[in-house]
């Protein structure tokens, strides 16, 4: 690719990023980093007007609108990297240092166990700009959980934040006590309280989890959300193929059954066929930095313009400081994106690719596409799906992707794939 193309892309990225940071600094008359450094988390919460975001509702069962105050946990020196997050699938095998986890057999079923803690922290959303977040294990989005259909997901959850929190899974959960809502089971967990959630990994697909404490709009917006990936079990697909496609059981041919099983193996991380696919997680999110009920920053995986173009020599070597570089992909390898929308205060978000069309699997619950050959997909909050991309016929170089709400793109949700 001509170096001038990289230079022009870098110039555009820098112009938009500088404009975003300048607007935020102008709004506050100082940087978010200076504010938080000077007065601490509790003070910054008061300064930024949390009361307006509360909407007059309560955080959990306490009398105070911010729940019960107490000891606050914090992960030290946790440097969230949106490029690492793309590929961090926690399967119980210790993939992330800040996510204690284990995998073992119990009563004939595979158990994938994770320890989650809700903490109050700050997250970097743009160069020099930090946001006072509530986060699972100190990161936004929260850790990605990955299991196989039929496994038991066991999450030992402890609330170390100042407010009452839960974990609510968007799964087919058969036990109301495990739903993670204020009205069922342990309800909202206050500071220092803990509970162990157990969910059967079903159905196969790309799913979502989040805090369900009130007011929902603040607990989700502050960062308490993440993705759950449930891989299909090829053996179950062979037995009940009609559950994984838009065909009646009487329409399933031997050829279709074989195709569905083959596709299931590419989606299952325990099968070698999955190694041929480059898989990544993208959570679309946003940040209301002045807490007026509208977003000032939009991002893919929290950091504005993280996957845009910084300084490069045009040969794959990047130097940008704030992890700013395109997502580099092998053009000959199939690409799979697990996409979820966590945006608050906007009705929809979207994902659009330049110079390419993709197949889309809504919620990822089928092995055949729900939309074929599209270049834009919309998602409401908590909606998710799987995107399949093929760049094998494309020339090497930069290919943009972004939200196709132009405001979102210019305020941080603009990215590039670098095909090599």
From TrEMBL:
It comes from the Archaea. One of its GO terms (molecular function) is nitrite reductase (NO-forming) activity. CDD domains: CuRO_1_2DMCO_NIR_like. Gene3D superfamilies: Cupredoxins - blue copper proteins. Its EC number is 1.7.2.1. The keyword Metal-binding applies. InterPro entries: Cu-oxidase-like_N, Cu-oxidase_C, Cu-oxidase_fam, Cupredoxin, NO2-reductase_Cu. Cu cation binds at residues 165, 170, 210-211, 219, 404. Pfam families: Cu-oxidase_2, Cu-oxidase_3. It is an enzyme of class 1 (oxidoreductase). Keywords: Copper, Metal-binding, Oxidoreductase, Repeat. Homotrimer. It catalyses: nitric oxide + Fe(III)-[cytochrome c] + H2O = Fe(II)-[cytochrome c] + nitrite + 2 H(+). This is Copper-containing nitrite reductase. Residues 121-233, 315-418 form the Plastocyanin-like domain. Its cofactor is Cu(2+); Cu(+). The lineage of its organism: Archaea, Methanobacteriati, Methanobacteriota, Stenosarchaea group, Halobacteria.
